[in-house]
Design brief:
This is Thiamin/hydroxymethyl pyrimidine-binding YkoF putative domain-containing protein. The chain is an alpha+beta fold.
């Protein structure tokens, strides 16, 4: 099964931007076959390619119909990525290019 990971940010074009963002994220959380992790800047989702794309199409359209204009910025990565990834940069590891 072809998997897809997407990093998505919603930017509603209105003063009250928290309400539409929260509404959108809560709707994404209702899909049982799709993993979701939200941080302060974006939401990452991962699941079967066709299901992720269908979900995004449906929910982005619903957001535009419900709240009006909003910009969605997405990064699409083929495959399944670890949504709980923790980096180790700056923790004693070699930094390529630093002082070389």
């Amino acid at each position: 099964m072809l998997m897809l990971t997407v990093d998505i940010s919603m930017y509603p074009l209105k003063d009250d931007f928290i309400t539409p963002i929260t509404w959108f994220i809560e709707r994404l959380a209702t899909y049982p076959n799709i993993k979701r992790k939200t941080n302060a800047l974006a939401t990452q989702i991962c699941g079967p390619h066709d299901e992720v794309m269908a979900m995004l199409s449906k929910e982005m359209k619903a957001a535009h119909e419900h709240f009006g204009q909003a910009v969605f910025v997405c990064k699409f990565l083929p495959g399944e990525r670890e949504l709980d990834y923790q980096d180790h940069f700056g923790k004693g590891g070699h930094t390529a290019g630093a002082n070389e």
